[in-house]
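Help needed: design a sequence for this.
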């Protein structure tokens, strides 16, 4: 009989403990601020790209246009890469990739397949370097070529793109053109 009374006491204790935990969870959830769209503060546009990025974009588009490649700016890494299935903490890594971005992504016009990720390297802070190493590692694991550009000239940029993308992944127009363009690389 003593065992029955003890089991009953433990059961009552566990029920009360579960109720307390539920009440605390409800209180904590209610204390979170709810965002109401009617309370949204006024927004304003921001500069999408720096002057350096705008200048590089113009040059990149002029080169890419020759070869029929599409150029996208400020692309979220989670839009072009994802962790493989079966990876530990896949949702966490997916979220992490969505928070990173590539400065420019070159894509095949027919399939929109990523041909090259371009990161502009300026004299940024260590946070930017940490972000760049995340982008580098993710691209490397996915087999997506990445090119870092610090300084460049137009002929060098054109040759560097052809070398980084590679003839097997280039749209047909690039394969023909790259044979005719034996200029030196100046992009890093």
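Sure. Designed sequence:
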């Amino acid at each position: 009989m003593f065992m029955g009374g003890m089991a009953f006491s433990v059961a009552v204790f566990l029920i009360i403990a579960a109720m307390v935990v539920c009440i605390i969870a409800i209180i904590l959830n209610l204390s979170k601020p709810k965002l109401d769209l009617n309370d949204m503060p006024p927004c304003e546009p921001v500069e999408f790209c720096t002057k350096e990025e705008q200048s590089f974009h113009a040059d990149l588009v002029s080169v890419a246009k020759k070869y029929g490649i599409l150029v996208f700016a400020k692309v979220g890494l989670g839009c072009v890469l994802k962790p493989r299935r079966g990876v530990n903490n896949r949702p966490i890594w997916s979220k992490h990739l969505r928070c990173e971005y590539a400065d420019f992504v070159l894509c095949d016009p027919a399939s929109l397949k990523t041909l090259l990720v371009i990161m502009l390297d300026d004299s940024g802070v260590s946070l930017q370097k940490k972000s760049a190493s995340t982008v580098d590692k993710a691209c490397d694991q996915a087999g997506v070529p990445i090119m870092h550009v610090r300084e460049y000239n137009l002929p060098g940029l054109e040759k560097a793109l052809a070398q980084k993308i590679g003839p097997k992944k280039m749209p047909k127009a690039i394969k023909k053109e790259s044979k005719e363009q034996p200029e030196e690389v100046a992009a890093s």
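The chain has a mean pLDDT of 79.
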